[in-house]
Amino acid sequence: MSTLTKTVNNALVFYDSVYAHRWYDAIGPSVAKYDQQFLTLPSDDSTGDATEWELTITEAGADTTHVVTDAAGGALLITCAGNEDDGISMQLGAAAGENVYLNGNYPLYMRLKFAINDVDQTDILFGVCVTDTDCLGAVTDGLYFRSVDESAVLSCVAEKNSVESVLGAQTMVDGTTYTAEVLYDGATAYAYIDGSLLGSIAYASPTFPNDELMRLTLEFLSGEAVANTLTVYEMAMVHLRG
Amino acid sequence: MSTLTKIVNNALVYYDSTHTHRWYDAFGPGVTKYLQQFLTIDSDNTTGDPTEWEVTVVEAGALVSTAVVTDVAGGALLITTAGDENDGWSMQLGAAAGESVYLDGDYQTYLCATFQVSDATDSDILIGLTVTDTTALGGVTDGAYFRSVDGSTDLCFVTENTNSEGTTTVATLVAATDVTVEFLFNGTQVTPYADGVAYAATASSATTFPFDQELRLTVEFLNGAAGAETCTLKELKLIHLRG
């Protein structure tokens, strides 16, 4: 395994020699990217809230937190307050900030490396969605991974105008690290868990979100009256608009 | 001089053709990095403090201790101490927690800083990797870092494990003169450099090598006498390959 380069839509893409769908970075015209290993995270001095993200925090139980933690290579630790559905929604940007538009041959790669302490007593959503402070409650358009309370299954979902299709699913285990990825190559979106293909969806599919601007989204909620945790080791997105 | 590439621990590393220890960037699996030229720095809009760092400010004397982006070609962070001895600024990357570098195996690591101080004798500076500690210059248990202390212009490279340290003098600081310090851990030994010149390496098997604690990027600058002193930090780079 090593790191190779290739040109995609006039950009130089750094990708994995074995997992060729795995993009590490891109340089070139109209490359839009967010690459975060959580060595640090810009945060407000007073509140401690991440300042690059629009946050919606639910903490009926106590205090929902999201802080950089001690982990080799860096990590973000999200801890829910103690009531069911306490947690956090994070959308990159501010109140507005939809910047991903899959309206043609504009490739998108995204990756989340994470672990959940209790996979069937939590809800998680990661991917790109329209602006919505409660995507897990229901979102109209998006391309994302989702696991809901009372299930350990992580699914990849494509959704347009509130009609969704599931590309594939995998059962998760408590405290285990997973790498969830999507690569949209301009014609088809492919979903992967730990490097294995889950499924795919074509641009022409009626559930492919090709007519709405979207934004990078992470949401994590507790599914019980326990302070459950999500540890995020990596979050990456590369979108080629050139 | 040009920029070349090579594969290190499955990552694509960009390095200097002349100073081959000098890494400019890396891409690939398990690459973690912080590359900062201080064109800007994320700062709180109320306090002005850098928001990517856990900051400890000491300002017993007149005025205040500050760290702000300043006017310098290529970018720089200007750290200014308040007016008493030991006033100054400590910053550790991350938040209250944030130890992210672990030299517990073949996890190659490169660190570089270019800086100058206003008074080489009457100031203390530490730049490198340490465990979480708000007063690393006062005594830190584990780390690999460059250090110069009040009353001396010697700049030393220090490896430290459980309060046992090994030191190598790598430069003599001169007031208002840039120095570039670097170290490269290649998985078996760490080699320090000052202005491109290599100094004695420390093996990962040495008793002072900090292999058993997670560390974090740390900068600390203190005044060594009455009167404000400054440190101008022109670049700060860390690349750690966890792949």
Summarize the helix and strand pattern of chain B as letters.
EEEEEEEEEEEEEEEEEEE
End-to-end gap of chain A: 29 Å
Strand content of chain B: over 45%
Structural class of chain A: mainly beta
Cα-to-Cα separation, first versus last residue of chain B:
29 Å
Overall pLDDT level of chain A: 97
Uncertain regions of chain B: pLDDT < 50 for 5+ in a row? none
Summarize the amount of helix of chain B as a percent range. under 10%
Task: Tell me the helix content of chain A.
Answer: under 10%
CATH superfamily of chain A: Exo-inulinase, domain 1
- What's the assembly state of these chains? heterodimer
Query: How many β-strand runs of chain B?
Result: 19
Q: Using a beta-carbon cutoff below 8 angstroms, give the protein chain pair with the largest interface and the number of residues from each chain.
A: A-B, 31 and 39 residues
CATH class of chain A: Mainly Beta
What coarse outline of chain A follows from CA principal-axis ratios?
globular
Structural class of chain B: mainly beta
* CATH A-level architecture of chain A: Sandwich
Largest sheet of chain A: 8 strands, antiparallel
The level-1 CATH class of chain B: Mainly Beta
Radius of gyration of chain A: 17 Å
Please summarize the sheet with the most strands of chain B: 9 strands, antiparallel
Description:
The complex is a heterodimer of chains A (242) and B (243). Chain A is mainly β and 242 residues long. Chain A has a single domain (30-240), classed as Jelly Rolls (Sandwich). Chain A is built from no helices and 19 strands. In chain A, strands 4, 6, 7, 10, 15, 16, 17 and 19 form an eight-stranded antiparallel sheet that branches. In chain A, strands 5, 8, 9, 11, 12, 13, 14 and 18 form an eight-stranded antiparallel sheet that branches. Chain A has a three-stranded antiparallel sheet with strand order 1-2-3, with no helix packed on it. In chain A, β15 (178-184) and β16 form a beta hairpin. Chain A starts with a strand and ends with a strand. The relative contact order of chain A is 0.25. Chain B has a single domain, classed as Jelly Rolls, CATH 2.60.120. In chain B, 0% of the residues lie in helices and 49% in strands. In chain B, the strands form three sheets. In chain B, strands 4, 6, 7, 9, 14, 15, 16, 17 and 19 form a nine-stranded antiparallel sheet that branches. In chain B, strands 5-8-18-10-11-12-13 form a seven-stranded antiparallel sheet, with no helix packed on it. Chain B is mainly beta and 243 residues long. Chain B contains no helices and 19 strands. The two termini of chain B are 29 Å apart. The interface between A and B is medium-sized, with 31 and 39 residues.
